[in-house]
Amino acid sequence: MGETRQYRLVPSGAGDPMSGMDFALPATARTRETALQKHSLLENVIVLCVLVFSTTAFVNLFPGEHGLEYGQEGLLFAQILWSFLYLALLLLVRKRIMEYVLLMWESKPLVLLLGWACLSVVWSIDGQITIRHFVALLFTSFFGVYFAARYNLREQIRLVSIALGVVLIASIAACLVFPGYGISSENLLEQPAWQGVLSHKNNLAMLAILAMLILVLYYIRGIRRVLIVVGIVLLFFLVVLTQSKTSLLYFVLSIVAFPFLRAFQNNPSKRRKIVALALLIACGLAMWTYWNWESFTY
Q: Is there a domain that residue 250 lies in?
């Protein structure tokens, strides 16, 4: 009881951008660290389901007029689904649930944010909805802490990659096979935009950007670089098909930023020159975007 618990980042490999830093367990959980590295198929499936549905994927399949985002109260079907997933997660970690609760408690900023969200019930117009949203936020925070403590960084990226792959492949299939479901147009003046199995085209575009960033990490590690380049090109065309101009700009900026980030990390003596060059290019892109914004967005 007298031993101090704290978060600790432990390097797991030098020069490997994906090995990064592994999340260390607190003192009470450190004795079970070896057991925590073994993941059952059921556990991985539950985690993948949470990650997939967290992207708002397949919301258009839920009963209701506008899926999960229909009204502030949400849909009963979605509430039942999330309750089932979180209940399954709690049953899965029931023997170590206090360890994860202690991890949450030791993160004071997280506790303060959760406390503020709980306190907002006092001045909320609809207290019942606020309480329900707070409970959802509480379980989401618990899942985040569990995910960080239970899986190391490499495993986290692998699971997120699988979840993104499921959503993106399903979205492309929906647009090609069921265009009435996967392709939408807000009005007759706009070109049809791909949204896939997501609730909005911007959501699909942002997930494509996240997938691209993960592919860049794999490219830096030298894993199947030809396939990685092909994947990045396909993701670029997917963002173009979503008609999301802002996401397309973010996609290009992310690609441009990676070489500067790697050069900054690997050349400490030239960091000032790298920063100056990056700022010069950023200013040029900002000026071009400012003067061409209307033609870019319309």
A: yes
